Amino acid sequence: MNSLASPSHELVFDHIADALVDKGYLILNDGLPEALTSALFQRINHLNDEDFRRAGVGREQDQHLNSRIRQDQIRWLEHSDVSESAYLHWMDSLREGINRRLFMGLFDYECHFAHYAPGAFYKRHLDAFRGQTNRVLTTVFYLNPQWQQSDGGELVIYPEAGDHPIERVAPAAGTLVVFLSDRFPHEVLPAKADRFSIAGWFRVNASIGNQIDPPR
Question: CB–CB of 124/185 below 8 Å?
Fold first, then answer.
């Protein structure tokens, strides 16, 4: 695991940490190894429809399905697959790197594949509300090779206050977006093609006895 933190990765971690301090978010192209991006794209394409489930709104007992808010299908990543495990290890190296640089106390990481069928969307939302969750840092990694601007499906990022977008991110393969979970409302626009990504969250431990609270 520690071998993943090569000198080149350390430069990437420096860049991410600096951007988080400067403006709270970062859009990074080709931050992860190209071979890993390709392997993850192949992995998600070989999963069966029954491996995915409709994504809900909210968490645990408050979670419910609402197709007027989000329409993606998800599957949580696991260490049993080589490519999924490699991605999880890379993110754990990032967690350690951010903690060394910014002392954020990131304790845990969870992530899932997300499949947006043509026309699917996710309305504007926040990943966390201050003082109410232990999700503190969001990551989105895109897996779509040869994505065209005409395909749509952008991630639109808004400021804490206001309706004018500060970023529109095309979901092109190899693009990594990292942002503070409780600061940036965002939405996923409908696409004309199948759209694949990995959405994840670094969390702090807000409970007693080394138990993550709340669980996913």
Answer: yes
List of residues 6+ apart from 98 with CB closer than 8 A? 13, 16, 17, 20, 104, 106, 137, 202
Domain segments of the chain as ranges: 2-53+70-203
For 75, phi and psi rounded to 5 degrees?
A: -150, 125
Q: Extract the runs of DSSP E, i.e. beta strands, from 78-130.
A: 108-116, 122-125
Query: What is the CATH number assigned to the segment(s) 2-53+70-203?
Result: 2.60.120.620
For the beta carbon of residue 144, count every other beta carbon within 10 angstroms.
22
- For residues 25 and 178, the answer to whether their CB atoms sit within 8 Å is yes
- Residue numbers of the chain with a pLDDT score lower than 50: 1-5, 60-64, 208-210, 212, 214-215
**Residue 91: its H or E element:** helix 82-102
Angle among Cα 85, 87, 58 to the nearest 5 degrees reads 95
The token pair that represents 78 in the structure block = 């696991």
* Exposed / middle / buried, residue 89 (Cβ in 10 Å: 0-12, 13-18, 19+): middle
Q: Report the predicted TM-score, pTM, of the whole model to 2 decimal places.
A: 0.88
Q: Which two tokens stand for residue 80?
A: 């049993």
CB of 94 closer than 8 Å to CB of 136: no
Residue 197's DSSP bridge partners are 114, 142
Q: Please, what is the Cα angle at 106 between 103 and 108, to 5 degrees?
A: 165
Place of tokens 């910014």: 102
User: Are 77 and 111 spatial neighbours (Cβ–Cβ below 8 Å)?
Assistant: yes
